[in-house]
Amino acid sequence: MKKYIDSGKKDTRSGFGEGLLRAGKADERVLALTADLKGSLKMDAFAAEFPERFIQCGIAEANMVGAAAGLAIAGKIPFIGSFAEFVTGRVYDQLRQEVSYGKTNVKIASSHAGITLGEDGATHQTMEDIALMRALPDMVVVNPCDYNQTMQATIAAAKYEGPVYLRFGRPSVPNFTDPEQPFEIGKAYVMNEGKDITVFCCGHLVWEALQAAEALEAEGISVEVVNVATIKPLDEEAIVASVRKTGKAIVAEEHNMAGGLGEAISGLLAQKQPTRLCFMNGGDRFGQTGTPAELMALYGLDAAHIVEKVKAIL
Fold first, then answer.
1. Catalytic site residue 61?
2. pLDDT in tens, 214-248
3. Among the options 61, 208, 214, 224, which is catalytic?
4. DSSP 176-211
């Protein structure tokens, strides 16, 4: 099994901040807009380096989307940033009409996604955002796994022509991918090759799946771990190839069942490669108040629960 080393825990939102700064240095068209959450979105370095390209919109998310769409039409590359709940659900009409419908070149940066937001509770913990954004035509949906991959995904989003939804989190989590590996939109990354079962995952679940695979290897169980960092469009070839090899799969994600990665993959496999498929997600419920680790365990989304699920299937 390939060994991944945690180089030091970092929050993925800081990976976005670093990627935004690098994208801004590479292309003067890159702008940053936020709805009174510059610090939370880690836009501070960009704002300090390029004050003339940073726009503080205040707590007016709908207006921020409209302003960004206008800037994109004028040839700029705007990144809009807020909490995932506020930059999807609160402004869905604006995203549909002003960004998706016109294929406007706006990048939506969402922090504090999922239950790992922690103590802020259910009102701020969005577990429905991937479903909302997947439903919008021509919207790319990306959920990278650590600081390094989030940084590279942000750089890739700036180069991509069209709307992109970037999803990242609040807590510090293991940072284990190659910081120099460019991110490819639409590519699934095989993190560990196996033959007995595939675990498809994204975001914070990738590290948990790798830890589970390592534990299971010690018991003679070979687990293939596939990081589906781009949820839309799916890497159909990589997903189908993996289940043809293993014959069975789990999809693990920090999102509710409806409209998430699990349903995206099950829809693909139903057409291309019918496969025994099980799901690990938030089910059909809201978040709760607690620490990120407590909530991941409560919702059955940690390495220990992945180990249990794999054994139950096998």
1. yes
2. 999 999 999 999 999 999 999 999 999 999 999 99
3. 61
4. -S-TT----TT--EEEE--SSEEEEE-TTHHHHHHH
